[in-house]
């Protein structure tokens, strides 16, 4: 079964084609600047039958997602030769950011499901409309092929009410569904599913804290395989300090700053989302690599930004140790979590009260999926590269295979 996985943004899309159940990536790529006359398409087709990989790039006019997907199918079938025909694509899996309270599992895309995604646009105005664009464009370009929605929020639907509700008038939840939803759920679900292979224990008997640390960052408490709390809230702005997002702040700051600086509500929201976090404190960048380099060269503001970032992640880890009355596994994933040994070491150096002991060599020089704590450590610390696309492909295959079996 060949499964095409799509992640559509407002002016971009990323894709991977998997051969399932082998979980082999046949081709991966992306298109940027959709809606312009100089859209850029790049791809890498993996080697077939022992042959080397093939890469390609092009620039052309791509005015909408339908044309972008036509290009993807052209590359998949003709330019790269990965498939002989689009008829070899068995199903399409879509990343959808917000499923609200309606979806705790991945599901086939129907008119009712699309309507629910539209209903949640106001909760994810930057993401759900783009996800819908990709879904509807694929329906036009590849009609009749089964499509599946995999929701970033679904994994966190296991949180209990005392964890997902805010201490504001309950009527706001009943009327407007104001509550914690959480994000990065597909990533947290994938990396936690890899834990048993590393620690050789059943996930259903473990307390795991998963740190997805990229430009956007979230920390999740996973008890017995289920998310019980997560740092992102009703929107991805809440939680730990991020690349350009503020994370948690005093709500009263909005009124104070907007009055002092004569800002609109939209200006203030833009400031918190695009001009805060590492970027806001350092004045340099939201990229941890640049922050680390500047810190090493003596930049006081970059050092301050790094220290704040580490501290706020560590605070959430401590909170989730309390929430679960302990922790068995601490894991790091995503761009910064996977690639910053300095950040991991600084965080772990302040968690020795848990009996946690990091293996400096494994942390600093190791590669890929691995344990970075010592054998004497009472908490196992892991680095697990995330693979949200594979999780989407697995869910899509599972649903389509189940439907085919039922049909027989």
Automatic annotation (TrEMBL):
Pathway(s) this gene product operates in, as recorded in its UniProt entry: Metabolic intermediate biosynthesis; acetyl-CoA biosynthesis; acetyl-CoA from acetate: step 1/2
GO molecular function (one): kinase activity
Zinc as UniProt keyword: no
Compartments where found: Cytoplasm
Family affiliation: Belongs to the acetokinase family.
Keywords: ATP-binding, Cytoplasm, Kinase, Magnesium, Metal-binding, Nucleotide-binding, Transferase
Protein name: Acetate kinase
């Amino acid at each position: 079964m060949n499964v095409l996985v799509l992640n559509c943004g407002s002016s971009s899309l990323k894709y991977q084609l998997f051969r399932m159940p082998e979980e082999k990536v046949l081709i991966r790529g992306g298109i940027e600047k959709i809606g312009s006359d100089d859209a850029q398409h790049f791809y890498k087709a993996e080697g077939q039958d022992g042959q080397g990989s093939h890469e390609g790039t092009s620039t052309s006019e791509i005015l909408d997602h339908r044309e972008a997907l036509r290009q993807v199918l052209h590359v998949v079938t003709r330019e790269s030769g990965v498939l002989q025909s689009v008829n070899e694509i068995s199903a399409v899996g879509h990343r959808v950011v917000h499923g609200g309270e309606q979806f705790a599992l991945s599901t086939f895309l129907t008119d009712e499901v699309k309507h629910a995604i539209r209903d949640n646009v106001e909760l994810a105005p930057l993401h759900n409309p783009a996800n819908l664009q990709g879904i509807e464009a694929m329906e036009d370009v590849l009609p009749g092929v089964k499509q599946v929605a995999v929701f970033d929020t679904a994994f966190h639907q296991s949180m209990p009410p005392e964890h997902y509700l805010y201490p504001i008038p309950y009527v706001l939840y009943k009327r407007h569904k104001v509550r914690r939803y959480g994000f990065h759920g597909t990533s947290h679900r994938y990396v936690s599913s890899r834990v048993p292979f590393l620690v050789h224990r059943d996930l259903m008997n473990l307390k795991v804290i998963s740190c997805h640390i990229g430009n956007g960052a979230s920390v999740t408490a996973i008890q017995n395989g289920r998310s019980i709390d997560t740092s992102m809230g009703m929107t991805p702005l809440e939680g730990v300090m991020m690349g350009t997002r503020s994370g948690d702040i005093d709500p009263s700051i909005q009124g104070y700053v907007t009055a002092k600086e004569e800002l609109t509500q939209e200006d203030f929201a833009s400031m918190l989302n695009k001009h805060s976090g590492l970027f806001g404190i350092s004045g340099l960048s939201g990229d941890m690599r640049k922050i680390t380099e500047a810190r090493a060269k003596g930049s006081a503001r970059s050092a301050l930004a790094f220290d704040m970032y580490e501290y706020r992640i560590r605070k959430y880890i401590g909170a989730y140790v309390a929430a679960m009355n302990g922790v068995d596994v601490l894991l790091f994933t995503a761009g910064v979590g996977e690639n910053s040994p300095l950040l991991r070491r600084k965080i772990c150096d302040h968690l020795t009260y848990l009996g946690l002991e990091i293996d400096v060599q494994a942390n600093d020089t190791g590669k890929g999926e691995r344990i970075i704590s010592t054998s004497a450590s009472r908490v196992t610390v892991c680095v697990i590269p995330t693979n949200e696309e594979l999780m989407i492909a697995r869910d899509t295959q599972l649903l389509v295979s189940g439907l085919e079996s039922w049909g027989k």
